[in-house]
Design brief:
By secondary structure, this protein is an alpha/beta fold. It has helices at about 5-25, 35-40, 55-70, 80, 110-115, 130-135, 155-175, 180-185, 190-195, 220-230, 250-255, 265, 280-290, 310-315; strands spanning about 45-50, 75, 95-100, 120-125, 140, 210-215, 235-240, 240-245, 275, 295-300, 305-310. The chain contains 14 helices and 11 strands.
């Protein structure tokens, strides 16, 4: 009796089939890929992405990825397009249509609309002789690889390859536009991702909120400053430059005759600091690694600019 494969064995076979298809696409990139990227770079409006069924779901993902990485994009349902939403597709746009067979009848009205108004059309299909491929200005040919479902009918390999090719387009556009971390952060202000991309300057305390003393400030006055500002630390500053830091630990180590000393005599020299443009998650890592609760923020010249506390990171959602 033939033993049925285990779920893990089935999964490995699916991943092997889909992985092989993606690698084949990598080794034989669509000939029109560079030209398609140039079209999308030059588009004055948006990139409209559309498909039917599973291809429609992939279209939404591709449009969302492009939009979040600097290329204005929108998914349009082909059925809705035939009932008025063609008005969303203007002469300033470019269109990407997805159809494994290239003969999806629901795409016909969008194809006709792009031809009528000279809107650039990019096709993603496995069939180079299909209606979609022939009508398109640029063809991104998908590999002629078997679906991973076992019966060769459920969109699996084909949708995976389409999504991967969409990612390749989005990343190519992102890099050619010079879309950097700062731009990415501006489009992702919410959630964990937004928090991880916050910089120290976004949350640091500045100005009168900073606990600042000078080298010759008496410790009695220093204690009052530390208590009033509530961070458990004080910056020792001369001519605007951070020269040392006083922490609760420094106070404990200098209890003997503490009130007879000044700030410069108690301070720790060469303290750990951070930059205003450093990621907040990076600053939190420094605090955790060194078991400290606050970091002073300095400029390239050593000038004191601010302070970031571990509670600031936690409130921002960086953990």
């Amino acid at each position: 009796m033939t033993q049925e494969p285990s779920p893990t064995e089935i999964a490995r076979e699916v991943l092997a089939v889909e992985g092989a298809a993606i690698l084949s696409m990598r080794d034989a990139m669509p000939a029109d890929f560079d030209a398609a990227v140039e079209v999308l770079l030059d588009v004055g409006g948006r990139v409209i992405v559309s498909g039917m069924g599973k291809s429609g779901h992939v279209a939404h993902k591709i449009a969302a990825t492009m939009a979040s990485t600097g290329t204005p994009a929108q998914a349009v349902h082909p059925g809705e397009a035939s009932h008025g939403d063609l008005g969303m597709i203007t002469s300033k746009d470019a269109v990407i249509l997805i159809s494994n067979s290239g003969e999806t009848r629901e795409l016909a009205d969008i194809i006709a609309h792009t031809r009528r108004f000279s809107i650039p059309l990019i096709a993603m299909t496995k069939n180079p002789h299909s209606t979609l491929a022939v009508q398109a200005d640029h063809l991104l040919l998908l590999p002629d690889a078997p679906e991973a479902c076992g019966i060769g009918m459920a969109p699996t390999t084909s949708t995976t390859c389409t999504m991967a090719l969409g990612d390749a387009l989005a990343v190519a556009l992102m890099k050619l536009r010079g879309f950097e971390q700062e731009s990415f952060r501006a489009l992702h202000p919410g959630g964990t991702l937004g928090a991880q991309l916050l910089t120290v300057s976004a949350v640091m305390h500045t100005g009168d909120k900073l606990p600042v003393v000078h080298e010759h400030t008496a410790m009695g006055e220093t204690l009052l400053e530390m208590t009033a500002k509530g961070f458990g630390v004080a910056a020792v500053v001369e001519r605007g430059m951070l020269t040392g830091v006083i922490t609760d630990g420094d106070l404990r180590r200098n209890l003997t005759h503490l009130m007879e000393r000044n700030a410069g005599e108690v301070a720790t020299r060469g303290p750990r600091t951070t930059r205003p443009d450093a990621l907040l998650s990076e600053a939190l890592g420094v605090m955790n690694a060194n078991k400290i609760s606050a970091l002073f923020v300095v400029g390239d010249d050593g000038a004191l600019l601010g302070l970031v506390h571990i509670h600031d990171a936690l409130r921002a959602g960086v953990a």
